[in-house]
């Protein structure tokens, strides 16, 4: 395998996806001197269009600087190739003379690699290297990108809780995540003490009721004089509809090319603001979406996450040498270990947050959930307890 | 002046307002051993209600930990006392046996100190110590709290620009600030190169036109394939109305106790999203409010800002000894220097961003604006230029 390696980045960027790309590129350069390393521009679109950055020739110090830079330096894509599109990709890879294709992304990306593996019939190695702030890949204890995103979210809620101690009111922070609640749960990682926010955490794994939400907020205000809430943008009502569908008039709902309701944007914050204004009139309430900050804020890159992402990229080269598969970050009880797992175990599947990570019947993290978070997102900043 | 000092914190919290409080408390303890140092809880409300934390007796290491903690540890208030309320405060201060009152806040806070000075007739020293992320105090080159907030905003826009290189589209980030554009302008501080966002910056000092905004965004998309926009929540249309008033139906507008239109919340993001969807149909567009993050994100506290805020608190004690006044951070051409200035020079006034900080006729920072930002918010993170 001294020939040609293609690397691409797919889906939403993360703070450390470039570590994985550079980890793979440098490992190829080390283990396969003389090999061509092509970085496909904008995910599989670059393969389709023959548009590559030559990663073989770029000085290592420039690559290492890019590794430390958030977001996907090769560009990314939301394309989810079907069989026909995969045929085009396969032809593109053949044209480039590729022996292996390492695609860094989430469960859609591993799905693409599964289709390509089946179509290529063993003539090329297809590797999926994990990446997602959602932390929702099967076979993984956690995924590269999650820890940095979780640190941002934990820091955001610690900061907002301190802010609302000074000027009390209701704060609702909306966190990215369509199906898995891990990132929203991370809001609780750095709670100062039992009086600290987030006092309420709503994850997609549990049905959301607007009436119960108002009751929860009211009870929290009575107890803590303020109420800090973390809501996943993917929360659904008991009928399985996304919350935004229940709160926003149908003619105003936006849908993407796949028919999925658009969760981002200001519809959900506006709807929750209205619900709070009606349910708790006269109370100071602020609803913000954390937006894109968790997935790539330059000031919240975890060193552990960066190293794990780099190592996952390097490990992907070994998986390519062995014929392909998916790289998984597993936990052996003491440390994170890298494993090769079959693509089909990850492809198109969603790992949900275990039910016992939340207290039964209460929208708060359980001890099991906090143990997981404390291991991955240990306290990073020393803060003093305010007088209020 | 060996007697009693009262310290309070007013207005919106910042990342370093506790530095100023602790700087003052420790300086009093050093220069006036045996003096009582009372921290009023929730600004002037604590004086009204006789509610204090005893800052004389708290171990220095706990105070230093609080200093490094964002938000106002004594609690804050939005109360803007009139003459009658000031009479109540004055009586409260007399009851506490206060010789001096150091109030940390913005221009409203210095206004309160001005009224109290006039009412007390020289029997007590009233000091205003500056604090505001808006950077809008007269007599100051910049204000404690601004640099940390500006670093967060600069980092946020650097990060979002990298994100939108990977997945192109339109991004609008709404930044706090009713009257002064400094913090929104800080979005440009860490631009990587002339191709980098924010490509458009809208500040309250310049009239905003929704039609021109759409034209600007369209032209930027043509040139850069993406468009990153920073908008101050305080931008106004040519008729002097807040933008949110022009875009939101009157019956939906929220106003505060002072009759000011509520700028925060999701009305403005929702309205800008609608304007983009109508003006540039089919384009991917995301509008987010940065919300509370700039004023107290635990991961974006500037060491320079922290030190200056601490020093301003210590200097406030000297100003108290001299009979009162306002502490100002000025620039002598080489470094920041602390000066005592009359309260009336600051009280109730708003410093706007100089007109020449923006290019004429273009919504971008000028060289003069960039020079100011680069001095206060120098590059903090090394990032590599992406391939896209």
From TrEMBL, chains A, B:
Enzyme Commission number, as recorded: 2.7.1.90
Chief localisation class: cytoplasm
Ranges for domain Phosphofructokinase: 6-319
Pathway(s) served: Carbohydrate degradation; glycolysis; D-glyceraldehyde 3-phosphate and glycerone phosphate from D-glucose: step 3/4
Catalytic activity: beta-D-fructose 6-phosphate + diphosphate = beta-D-fructose 1,6-bisphosphate + phosphate + H(+)
Catalytic residues identified in the record: 134 (proton acceptor)
Binding residue positions for diphosphate: 12
Gene3D superfamilies associated with the record: 3.40.50.450, Phosphofructokinase domain
InterPro entries on file: ATP_PFK, PFKA, Phosphofructokinase_dom, PKF_sf, PPi-PFK
Regulation of its activity: Non-allosteric.
Record NCBIfam families: PRK14072.1 (NF010675)
UniProt-listed PANTHER family: ATP-DEPENDENT 6-PHOSPHOFRUCTOKINASE 1
Family: Belongs to the phosphofructokinase type A (PFKA) family. PPi-dependent PFK group II subfamily. Clade 'B2' sub-subfamily.
Name this polypeptide is given: Pyrophosphate--fructose 6-phosphate 1-phosphotransferase
Species: Mesorhizobium sanjuanii
Gene: pfp
């Amino acid at each position: 395998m001294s020939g040609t390696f293609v690397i691409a980045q797919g889906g939403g960027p993360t703070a450390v996806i470039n570590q994985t790309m550079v980890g793979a590129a440098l490992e190829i350069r080390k283990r396969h001197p003389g090999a061509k390393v092509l970085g496909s521009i904008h995910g599989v679109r670059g393969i389709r269009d023959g548009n590559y950055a030559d990663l073989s020739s770029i000085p290592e110090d420039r690559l290492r600087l890019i590794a430390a830079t958030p977001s996907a330096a090769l560009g990314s894509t939301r394309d989810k190739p079907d069989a026909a599109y995969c045929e085009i990709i396969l032809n593109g890879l053949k044209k480039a003379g590729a022996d292996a294709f390492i695609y860094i992304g989430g469960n859609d990306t591993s799905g693409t690699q599964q289709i390509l593996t089946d179509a290529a019939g063993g003539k090329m190695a297809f590797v999926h290297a994990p990446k997602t702030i959602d932390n929702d890949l099967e076979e993984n204890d956690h995924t590269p990108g999650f820890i940095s995103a979780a640190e941002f979210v934990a820091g955001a809620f610690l900061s907002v809780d301190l802010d609302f101690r000074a000027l009390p009111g209701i704060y609702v922070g909306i966190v990215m995540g369509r199906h898995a609640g891990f990132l929203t749960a991370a809001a609780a990682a750095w709670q100062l003490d039992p009086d600290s926010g987030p006092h309420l955490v709503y994850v997609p794994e549990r049905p959301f009721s607007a009436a119960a939400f108002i009751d929860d907020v009211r009870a929290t205000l009575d107890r803590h004089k303020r109420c800090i809430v973390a809501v996943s943008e993917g929360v659904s009502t008991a009928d399985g509809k996304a919350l935004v569908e229940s709160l926003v008039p149908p003619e105003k709902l936006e849908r993407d090319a796949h028919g999925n309701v658009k969760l981002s944007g200001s519809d959900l914050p506006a709807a929750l603001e209205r619900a709070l204004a009606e349910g708790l009139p006269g109370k100071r309430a602020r609803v913000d979406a954390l937006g894109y900050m968790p997935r790539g804020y330059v000031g919240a890159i975890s060193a552990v996450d960066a190293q794990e992402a780099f190592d996952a990229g390097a490990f992907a080269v070994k998986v390519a040498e062995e014929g392909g598969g998916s790289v998984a970050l597993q936990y052996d009880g003491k440390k994170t270990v890298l494993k090769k797992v079959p693509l089909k175990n990850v492809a198109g599947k969603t790992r949900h947050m275990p039910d016992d990570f939340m207290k039964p019947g209460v929208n708060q993290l359980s001890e099991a959930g906090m143990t997981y978070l404390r291991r991955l997102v240990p306290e990073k900043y020393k803060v003093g307890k305010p007088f209020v």
